[in-house]
Amino acid sequence: MTAFAALHRPGTPLLLPCAWDHASAFALAGQGFPAVGTTSLGVAAANGLPDGASATRDETLRLALTLGSGPFLLTVDAESGFADDPDEVGEFARQLAAVGAVGVNLEDALGPPGRHAAKIAAVKRAAPGLFVNARTDTYWSGDGDPGETVRRLDAYREAGADGVFVPGLTDPARIAELAARFDIPLNILLSPAGPTLAHLADLGVARVSLGSLLYRRALGAALETAADITAGHPPRGTAPAYADVAALRGGQ
């Protein structure tokens, strides 16, 4: 078992914050997070590109190159692999592993489950040590059909996925059923309106991702600060000192 896989413990889940650049990743690592993910929305928005449209392949690889040697375990949100051809997805995964990533998140975006399973298998052939978190979008952008969710996750597990991810699922009973059904880690996206981290732990979840939440909160804080100053009020919240942010350039 790799060090990253060992962090996935049902009942004591890995809380995975997601970064969008060097500073955000190293700042999170400085807070004691042993693993950091990337957020496809954050990477896309920061570069003026659409999310989920296979438009950020180069930017994602460039970020992985920047972060892969950091003092934390890196897992990369690779959307649907940036290609339909499984071999091309496998090659991209090999490149991620070569620059230091230990995991990859692959979403099916409700495409054919057989094609997504083939991508997973190709990744495991090309980069056997990479932890593949196989995501289904049945709840994120589909109709939340429990039967279809299980069929897809079963196929992805059979293809070699190391973990399964169901963003958009917030029903505690359904989460507990999936956690008990699979012998590989279940990943849930934290929803501010859904179960808390402690509740998800009780349900048997092994990994809780923050997705784009931190990026969106950072943008929200910037807008709030600008609005406060415009209105003549002291800015709310806290901000790292200039020197602390400047020090992140050296990976401290």
Automatic annotation (TrEMBL):
CDD domains: ICL_PEPM. It comes from Streptomyces parvulus. GO terms for molecular function: lyase activity. Keywords: Lyase. Pfam families: PEP_mutase (PF13714). Gene3D superfamilies: Phosphoenolpyruvate-binding domains (3.20.20.60). This is Isocitrate lyase/phosphoenolpyruvate mutase family protein. It comes from the Bacteria. Coiled coil: none annotated.
